[in-house]
Specification:
By secondary structure, the chain is an alpha+beta fold. Helix content is about 40%, strand content about 15%. It has 42 helices and 38 strands. It has a 10-stranded mixed β-sheet, with helices on both faces. A hairpin with a 3-residue loop joins strand 23 and strand 24. It is elongated. The two termini are about 45 Å apart. Its cofactor is Mg(2+). It is an enzyme of class 7 (translocase).
Amino acid sequence: MYFTHEPFLPFSSDSQLPLHPPSSTEQAAQPSVPSSSAGNTHIVPSSTSVSAEDPSFRTSYRFPALGTSKSTHQQRHFPETRYLSRAHDSLSADHTLSFLLSHQVSEEENQSKGASSSGFSAVELSSSSQNTIRSSWHANSGAIDRLDSREWSFGSEEHRSGSLYGSGRRDFDNRIIYINNPQKTNDKYEYKGNRVRTSKYTVRSFIPKNLFEQFHRVAYIYFLLILCLNQIPQLAVFGRYASLLPLAIVLVVTAVKDGYEDWRRHRSDKKENNRTALVFVDDHFEPKPWKHVQTGELVKVQANETIPCDLVLLRTSDPNGVAYVQTINLDGESNLKTRYARLETAAHLEAADKHPGHYQIRGKVICEKPNRNIYGFVGYAEFDGKQLPLGPSNVILRGCELKNTAWAIGVAVYAGQETKVMLNSAGAQLKRSRLEHEINREVIVLSLFLLVCCFASGLGMGLWLERHEDQLRNLPYYGKTGENYFGYNGKIGESIFAFLSSLISFQIMIPISLYISMEVARLGQSYFMIRDVEMYDKETNTRLQCRALNINEDLGQVKFVFSDKTGTLTENKMEFRFASIFGENYESADDPEETFASHENEPTTESTVGVSWKPKAGVKVDRRLVQVLKESTSSLQRSMVHDYLLTLAACNTVVPTRIKLTSSGNLEMEVANAADDEIQLVEYQGESPDEQALVAAAASYGYTLVERTSDYIVIDVLGQRMTFELLGIHEFDSIRKCMSLIVKCPNGQVKVLVKGADSAVLKKIALSEKTTHIAGERQAQVLLDTQMHLGMYSNQGLRTLVVGVRELSDSEFTNWQRLYAKANASVSERATLLQEAAQAVENDLILLGATGIEDKLQDGVPETISTLRDARIKVWVLTGDKQETAISIGFSCALLTPDMQQIIINASDKQQCHDAIKAAKEAYVQVENRYWTFRASGRIYDFETELPGSPEKVTELSTRPFLQRMKLESFRSINSSRADSGRSRHDRLLALIIDGNSLAHALDKDLEQELFDLATACQVVICCRVAPLQKAGIVSLVKRKSKEMTLAIGDGANDVSMIQMADVGVGLSGQEGRQAVLASDFAMGQFRFLQRLLLIHGHLNYRRLGYMVLYNFYRNAVLVMLLFWYTLYTAFSTSPAITQWSLVLYTVIYTSVPTIVVAIMDRNLSPQTLLKYPGLYKSGQQNESYSRLLFWLTMLDTLWQSLVLFYVPYLTFRHSTIDTWSIGSIWIISVVILVNLHLAMDVEHYTWITHLAIWGSIVATYICLIALDLLTDDDSLVYYGTIFNIAGTASYWLDIFLIIVIALLPRFVVKLVKQKFWPSDVDIAREEEILKG
């Protein structure tokens, strides 16, 4: 059941458009329109949306005041449709995103921003330069950020750099930079130098600071206290030096690792700080180390050099002040970006260059304080009393590279740690795995158990002294007088000392070696993950990156995957597919012969229509459109096609570059120059792949963008060079949702070229009665046809834009010029004023048409999503695209299926959102049925149910033949997976589609529980038109409410907040830069690699580390319990029978290596089996490898084995004359062999390294015992030669054999019975592997 789109139908040209939304009565009178798809449910609340013109609406939401046009168009409202369920007639949809973001800012912060407008003096526009307006159009508002920069501190109360104003709560006191006068600039020494430091430690601070950080682990503090107690002579159980060894090894190893990492940072910092830059000193530029560059100095950057600090451009090698930079070191984007120097500042520097020594460069820059917003800058330059506004396009940031520009000169405004790149260099939040949290819980339990054992020892000591009080005078070690005096402290004192001594003796109950073992195991696991050739991406030449080594095991427990769409599920390589021009639909030809010539030596074909410049990458052309271009320019259709292609070629920020062959035979790129007459191969560089695709499409039809400067644009129109004077530009922002360009055509006409989102541009279209344009008579029909084409494009998953144009009269142009000049002359209110200027001309547009751009799915995306679904992983898509596009992509990537019941929620206010969610829950969310139970907390529990169509229970699977068991087990997994996702009352899977406007209200505290209940009951959730902070909010909601493991994956800067909020963040090395990679825990090249990362490496890593933790608890506890049983027969004395060095080396050498090797290399199933049966992944979701039940079962097994360890030798030698050290020798070798064989019995995949580790540890233990027994110092002489004496008896070897058999027999029987009668899915799959050989 595929999604069908009802086109948005406007009124006819002769219809009377309503000035206000229809009342509830009018709505009720309208006939209902049935849904076009029975599988779709459109939740349309009956309440009427509130117009933005309503004062109460404006006041309650505190929208920023936008200058509105006086034209009647601003009052026109399109009728409401049942499908869209939006208030098209209000500005609420436009402002919801802004409201959501600004809502994050506190009231005090808003007040501080409102008061900040007085922080800058008024700026007067220079009237002496005709180029002022033209050169200042690029000074974008610093108050409105790109969405990509809004995730720096989600949820932070102190610094909300993700707010609408970009840099959060910041001080608006002016920073005054005196150009070429660093001494005066920094006369108060308040500005930092240009030295940067990314290292954490210095030589002096390394030891104290590193120890302070390490002792944040409670276990380390515990062992430090034990170590201090052991230094007291009365409490010394171990030797003073021997007791230092475990904690010292852990601290030293961690310190060495941290020190090495920090040494690498120091080395990188030193290299960075010692790079040289050209600084203006004594009328010439001379080299100077970066670390010595000061704020206020003039810096000259040569081509292909890196910018040493944040500079305000003053002059470039281009006469128009243009410079091209590459920000790959800043945000990973390789496309060229255009920056500009003010023509006035360039003139001052040029005069100083012509008169060296006679013309002093004097001026100042007044700007905002340093902040993290890399996309914003607010300030102005002052020369000769004239103030020139500065914006982000006048600034080049540290880390950028100068490209295609011979040189550029700027003044340093931010240096060192105050540069924007350094302010943004803080790493992602520290994440700890769920297993570590569970370890802390078990450590607390074991600590309590340890205290009970120690209390029992102390109490037992007191009772024993009470019972033998009359014998204490003559007993050794308890003598009270004379030669036998040993410092007896009384019954209470001795009990306290016994308690503390037991605490020291039993200290290894808490396995301190576990922490270092887990670090080493994770490092080894990461090595094999990185070396997995199946996750190597040839196109980007990237392997998997493990950027966080402490959450490997979390990959095996993921329940929710939150994915971006563009660049994550799709390739983000845009291909122009469709063009809707004046009601006609054109599409790319499928005939390869119709492809535009994309090679240098290929002759010009018919499709090029006389083009003398060719794009490097063209598109397939439509013959019908080519024929239209050959018609007379006087025809209406030809005129509309001309304006359409002109808008595609001009209305963008793309930089045309040409490819030329150097003398050395290499290809070199340089900025294209229209003065070159020969045929050139043009390549377009731009920040947006969409814009590059549009420009390439226009070039393929003969409208080739040749040159772009701050003053004009040169376009080769069908072989004729045409120059368009650039009068101004209004770049895209999230409020207007469109971009407009004001140009003066060669014939003198002034035109406004507009492209943007359909939801924004269609509101600006003028119908026939509102325009005198020749095309106005057909606007209503064109609008209807364009809407139909937009629906068709969206249903195919294409990205759409609407294109419009308007001719300005002299009075309209003069009015806009006044507003535009006023906006550029302002600093603090520039954003609002620019919007007012844009709205003055972005209305009464002639609708030219629309575009359809295909963003193809990545390879393997549908298969990966299907596999993840079979693994009981819910995939949610969070995208900024249109709802129709997202739904179409959902079907394409197998996220949505025809049998799903779609719940579509589009609400414009909070009450509508509440009603829609409530109605959906009541209609479709089944509270309880025979398969599953849904609870408000989001937890879903499977009951012991009968399989559909089969009378047998799940527990009877093991009695059937293997293949039949596997088939039934697979069916049970699928059934359980569907139950986990939820069904409607009609037994259909549910899919929730909700837009950003609805989420703006649904994420409020009083609605979030309702949203969570509905969303988690659905198999699929798609969120459309969402902002970056909304993505993080959704992830946070699921984390808090469900307590399940979450994973977020994305490729763009707008995914950073989502990636950092999730338990596991995965970044893709895509087309949108590396910000997502830098903020992620794991990075890879393709979405399809996610199934190997989770189903194979995640499953194995979780199982390995889960077993490792249980084994370490068992390994230490079995020895402690052995020592405890011994104290019961030694008057509760804590003096052990095992030597001090053996106790210390037990967890360091005797048993440490095997568990690490197994945690790295063991595997229960092959990768092929894990991919073949995705349902096996649920073993991690159900905590089958580590849980509280498994912990207590392990402790019960530990109790049994410790009893066997103690009593077998005790019963054997209790009537003999064997000494304490001899029986201790039996115990230590027995426990080492026992725990290693215990491990060997659980290993499921043996390698030669595993054999070497297990059996080698036993051999190493014997070697150490022999070496220790040969020591002849005073402390070791008492057990000299013990091993040689006791090992020569038959009882020694018989006891070791009996201990192993009796201790491991119950565990062996339980494992055998479980696998025979109650096998898990993993057991059955493993049996299949074994049978197949």
